[in-house]
Write a structure and sequence with these properties.
about 475 residues; mainly alpha
Length: about 475
């Protein structure tokens, strides 16, 4: 009876999700048909491809979006298309192609490493390595993403990251760590992104299944199915696989068969070889003591899928691309270190120039015996203005480039504004220093004249001294 109620509830949820999905698909198609902005059309096509279950049509939609993005030189859209192609090939278990397209997206997005897009590329590359059972490489990308998590522009990014790190720890049988990350992911989804609750719930079900908490695991799997949103239907076979393993563990073979076959059908529909491999292995185990021929058939299916997913040639391709990417990242890091060192030296040179010119000006201003012409002060004032402007430019350039997305027009405009603020300050400072210098020069001349008069007083007649004072 419970199973019947559960199935009826599932059918109701599926129909509701289908209606919501159709509404969003119709909305996207309307945007594509009516918008006059090619950039909006590219992004709408990419979104539409996510809802397409037929892989041929999915690939065709993304290819159309990519061609348009290249034509209008829309780099953000081009990166999104590469990302979609990477996900497409990962779903179909073509991991070399998936890694290649995800790396292409990363190269474009790494120009601004504090965006959701760049963060997502790190996540997706980590997922490719995770599907290849390369835990070390997957965690390297996941932890790199976690480092910039607090500085990304979208606050719920950790949802997917924590789920995927939890999956790695679960595979490594580090159940406590897996539980921590799945719980963090669940909390993020519950507070800010409820349409993505299914992934964390499936993960929590898997962890508690591994811990032997059968009832708790079953509750999480049921909640995961109830929470699957229209854009997360891809999670449904994972929920079914979790339930199938749980029913197998509790010796409820009929239910295990049912959910394993449902998962197998969905994986076949999506051409997910990794999913077929996992479902076929489970079905082979279920048939072992019931039907030897069926068990052998599923074992053969699992073996073929395994050979396809983890073939030697594909592994070599992945290794070659991984090596090339590691070398590229090393060169980027070296270039960044060199640029930072050069910038540090340039700032030091500019600071030295400012200090030296300031010292010269102060020396002449404060000296008690040197008469300096106004033009001399004006010359050094201009040098000081240029040095200060160059120092400010060197100091703010990295932040300015990030804020303006390396736009030459915006950067030039901001520098002009800074210059416009410095020039009046320079004039006021120059006027003030010139005034001090004039007063000082007068005092020096008067003092020199008095000394001259005092030295001449014994030899000059009284009326001559009076005339001299009048002239002064």
């Amino acid at each position: 009876m419970k199973r019947l109620i559960f199935l009826i509830t599932l059918i109701f949820i599926s129909k509701s999700l289908f209606a919501q999905t159709k509404q969003q698909i119709d909305s996207l198609k309307n945007v594509i048909a009516t918008t006059t902005q090619d950039t909006a059309k590219v992004m709408a096509l990419c979104l539409l491809s996510r809802y397409e279950l037929d892989n041929v049509r999915k690939f065709s939609i993304v290819a159309k979006a990519l061609a348009l993005a290249r034509k209008i030189k829309f780099e953000k859209g081009e990166a999104q298309c590469y990302n979609q192609l990477g996900n497409y090939f990962r779903i179909t278990s073509d991991y070399p192609q998936s890694l290649e397209y995800n790396l292409k997206a990363l190269k474009i997005r790494e120009k601004d490493p504090y965006t959701q897009e760049y963060f997502s590329s790190l996540n997706d590359i980590g997922l490719v390595y995770s599907d290849q059972q390369n835990n070390e490489a997957a965690l390297a990308y996941y932890f790199k993403a976690e480092e910039i998590l607090g500085r990304t522009k979208v606050p719920y990014n950790g949802l997917f990251l924590f789920t995927r790190i939890g999956a790695i720890y679960l595979r490594q049988n580090k159940l406590d760590s897996a539980l921590i990350y799945y719980t963090k992911s669940y909390e993020k989804a519950r507070k800010a992104w409820k349409s993505h609750l299914s992934g964390p719930l499936i993960g929590l079900g898997n962890v508690h299944n591994a811990m032997g908490n059968t009832e708790l695991a079953f509750s999480y799997y049921r909640m995961s199915i109830a929470s699957i949103a229209d854009n997360r239907l891809v999670m449904l076979p994972q929920s079914y696989m979790g339930l199938a393993r749980l029913f197998m563990k509790t010796s409820n073979k009929d239910s295990a068969f049912y959910y394993a076959k449902q998962a197998m059908a969905m994986h076949n529909q999506r051409q997910s070889k990794a999913g077929v491999m996992s479902a076929a292995k489970l079905l082979a185990q279920l048939y072992e003591n019931r039907d030897g021929n069926e068990a052998a058939r599923y074992y053969k299916m699992a073996l073929e899928a395994t050979d396809s997913v983890f073939s030697g040639s594909r592994t070599v391709q992945i290794q070659n691309m991984s090596f090339a990417e590691a070398e590229r990242q090393r060169e980027i890091n070296e270039s960044k270190l060199k640029d930072a060192e050069d910038r540090k030296h340039n700032l030091q040179f500019a600071a030295i120039a400012i200090g030296l010119i300031t010292f010269i000006i102060l020396f002449f201003v404060l000296s008690r015996s040197i008469i300096v012409k106004t033009k001399f002060i004006e010359f050094f004032g201009v040098l000081l203005l240029l040095a200060v402007f160059e120092f400010i430019n060197l100091f703010i350039h990295p932040y300015l480039a990030h804020a303006t997305d390396d736009s030459p027009v915006l950067m030039l405009l901001i520098l002009i504004i800074i210059g416009a603020m410095l020039v009046p300050l320079h004039h006021k400072l120059e006027k003030w220093i010139t005034k001090i210098m004039v007063e000082k020069n007068k005092k020096i001349r008067l003092e020199a004249a008095r000394k001259t008069i005092e030295s001449l007083e014994p030899v000059l007649p009284i009326n001559a001294v009076g005339k001299t004072e009048q002239n002064l």
